[in-house]
Amino acid sequence: MEAKHRETVKKLDKATLRRSWWSWYVGNLSSMSFEWLESFGFAVSMIPVIKKLYGGNKEEEIKALKRHSVFYNTEPQLGAAVNGIMCGMEEERANGAPIDDEVMNGIKVGLMGPLAGIGDAMIPGMYIPLLLSIAIGLAQGGSALGPIFYIVTYLTTITALSYFVFFKGYELGTKSVDMIVGEAAQRAREAFNLLGSIVVGGVAASYVNLQTTLRISTGAEKEIIVNDVLNGIFPKSLTLLLVIFCWSLMAKKQMSPLKVMGILVLLAMTGVFLNLF
User: Fold this and answer.
1) How many angstroms separate the CA atoms of 48 and 55, rounded?
2) In sequence order, what are the residues at sequence separation of 6 or more whose Cβ sits closer than 8 angstroms to the Cβ of residue 231?
3) pLDDT tens sequence across 243-274
4) Could you tell me which of 41, 97, 98 has the C-alpha nearest to residue 65?
5) What is the pLDDT of residue 257?
6) pLDDT tens-digit profile of 193-241?
7) Which residues, including other chains, have CB under 8 Å from residue 17's CB and lie 6 or more apart?
């Protein structure tokens, strides 16, 4: 009886899990809309797992695809942990564990927000600006080393991160929930947000430079050089105002980066025409 029981236990092999991870890694943002966002990318990534666990039972396959097609949105790289957790829960469910659709969707919804907060602060908020600042320095003088460094470093590290958290999520299962939504995770999100702000500020101060050529005549032989006066009060104050202006357009006015760049081009042309820059 014991041998027979072992034969009926359904277990996901590494090849199936890798196919699921790879499908999410390359296709997480391939089917986007305001109504569904990453839901269909998530559902497609679960197909290898569903086929392995419920293959031959069309009714169960359809049910599994439906429960993984609900609204879903998170940071894709760190969010791969949720895919791993769902693979583990599907495996438990296929082996008779009392896990219903509501529980699985509740865990997905509960995890996608905290992981988005950590992932957005850590990757686009801190890691990408840091890599870009290094790449910009390497690319000075027209060197191709800058873009090569960024592409190779980013793809290597992000791929490794996504792969690791996916399998760690599968390994820990529901035990990882406390790690992601707990107090320690909240402190991590706050730390990454602060560090990301520092990195972006450092990049802006190093690579953004706005100066004015405006001079004010005092009626005597000397003129007041406005740029020197402003820098004497607060170094790179015009640069700071420019960064805050761009941030307010994107964060407060919800403008796209392309529109902001268009506005900057118009301001630059106007400033040159009026001899301000």
Assistant:
1) 10
2) 237
3) 888 888 888 888 887 888 888 889 888 888 88
4) 41
5) 79
6) 665 566 667 667 776 778 887 777 766 667 777 777 777 777 878 888 8
7) 49, 84, 87, 166, 167, 170
**What length is written for the chain?**
277
pLDDT computed for residue 156 by the predictor: 95
Structure-token pair, residue 45 = 């990534």
Amino acid at 82: V
Q: Which two tokens stand for residue 227?
A: 């740029």
- Residue 37's φ and ψ, nearest 5 degrees, are 50, -115
Is the four-CA dihedral 13, 119, 106, 36 of positive or negative sign?
negative
Q: What is the mean pLDDT of the chain?
A: 81
Q: How far apart, in whole angstroms, are the C-alpha atoms of residue 248 and residue 227?
A: 24
- Determine the Cα–Cα distance for residues 195 and 216; give it in Å rounded to an integer: 40
Residue 250: partners with Cβ closer than 8 Å, 6 or more residues away: 256, 257, 260
